[in-house]
Amino acid sequence: MKAVYVGHSGFLVQTQRRYYLFDYFQGSLPVLNPEKPITVLASHGHRDHYNLQVLSLLEEQGMQQIDLVLSSDIPPEKRPTGRSCLAVSPGETHTLAQGQTLTTYDSTDLGVSFLIRDGEEWFFHAGDLNDWFWDGEPEADNRQMTQAYRGEIDRLARDLLGRPLDAAFVVLDPRQEGAYDRGMAYFLETVPVRKVYPMHFWDQPQVIGRFLAAHPQYREQIMEVCK
Q1: What's the predicted TM-score (pTM) here?
Q2: What CATH code is assigned to 2-218?
Q3: FRET label pair with 103: which of 22, 143, 149, 158, CA 20 to 30 Å apart?
């Protein structure tokens, strides 16, 4: 499995049989093999996670098979015309075109997060699932947020049955100031995973170094992301 960062929360994952493009927002794509199928996934309809321009970029590269998986919060009028797509909600499991399995988890903001099992390769994209704990917010609201996030991450860990993820794409947002690392740290404490790719850091990749300085025990798992 190979993962390429394409900006913000966008990642292109390549397995032996297929490409997966998560939460494309903006920017260029690497050169792709047009004969290899691609699944385009959008975790929710926020503009920094869903941009239909990606279809034009893929068509320019001559991609012959493009499959769409969109969160059900994206209304029909905002989906591409003339294309079929799989609309998904939290808590579902679907079999994809070549027998891969897609399981959806909830978000603590909007939409879904994705677990994909492609043969022996398992990977998770969190979308906007995060411990959105904000300094200055009411204590009860922050406590409820933490409980909701940890509940969903605990469910993911249980579903894995001890099998480590090959890769996970997880929020690390510097706008949370002193609470920036809460979601990422809990994920790493809870979920067995070989490689974690931080995302949603708003053109501030230095937050990755900040996290590693505070949590050096995860240095082998955290991937440096650059664009």
Answers
A1: 0.97
A2: 3.60.15.10
A3: 143
